[in-house]
Amino acid sequence: MLQRLLEEHKKNLDPKRPRDFLDVLLTRQEKEKLTDLEIMFSAWEFITAGTDTTSATMHWLTLLMANHPEM
User: Fold this and answer.
1) What pTM was computed for the model?
2) N or C terminus of the chain: which is more exposed, having fewer CB within 10 Å?
3) Residue 50: C-alpha distances to residues 4, 32, 56 (Å)
4) SS (H, E, C) the chain
């Protein structure tokens, strides 16, 4: 999935007008000596970064609601 997304971004890349963070990484790929795999790992981190926070928040919310049903 990420490989396909990366290839689509490469095809439509306008270095003067990056659309998102993936475009920014691609425009800096040569200068920073980033491989496609490194760019995909960075993109994966952005995609999955919020899942742990959301999960922890939902657990706390459930605990608080159980302990304070009047709220």
Assistant:
1) 0.66
2) C
3) 22, 26, 10
4) CHHHHHHHHHHCCCCCCCCCHHHHHHHCHHHHCCCHHHHHHHHHHHHHHHHHHHHHHHHHHHHHHHHCCCC
Each residue's pLDDT tens digit, 33-64? 999 999 999 989 888 887 888 889 999 999 99
**Euclidean distance between CA atoms 43 and 58, whole angstroms:** 25
CA 12 to chain centre: 19
Q: Is residue 22 packed enough to be buried (19+ CB in 10 Å), middle (13-18) or exposed (0-12)?
A: buried
